[in-house]
Amino acid sequence: MEKKKMKLWKKILLVVLALIVVFAIITLRKYIIITNLISASKNYVGKTNFIVDTYGLTNDSVTLTKIYNKDENFLSTHKTYSNNITEIRSLTVYNKDNEKIGIIESGEDKIALLNGNIAIGATGINTMSEFDDIKFKIPLVFTSKITTEECNNKECYLIELSKDYKIWVEKETGIIVREMDIGYITNRTYIFDVVKDEDIIKPDISDCVIQE
Asked: What is the pTM for the complete model shown?
């Protein structure tokens, strides 16, 4: 009887040891992947010349955003379409040589906000560098699930941080090209080093109500 118990305990210990080894291998793999993505993304954190096309999708609406960014200057357009909205709803923000203009359009109403009234800025580049802190990186390594998946015609890692939050990260660059947060999906496409000064065009405000 004692020998049988010993054999049983040995089997249990071997199973536990095998599980520990598998867990360690999986964790090490995730650590290496995340570290490499963070390292690759640092090449893009300081980029100031880019175009980004974004679309955000919910059950009943789509928001399309296009941004031209060159150094401190940018032109962004945001348009929302919804089954529940019949009129055009958009926001245009222009910032060039310290001149700022914002145009809010809702149906036939167009309001131009000048200089001091503009609070919104250009979006940055979404990369894995935001996890380059031990307090974010370690929980990500231990709690996430990482698989490989093609997204927006890019070879990506699908990182599931929780049941309701997932990100798709381009393997080569560490750039986040898609996010899913509960029911909201955001897709981004970037083009770098092509924006010229003439791409950032001052919008026409002649048909707007001016608020200075």
From this structure: 0.86
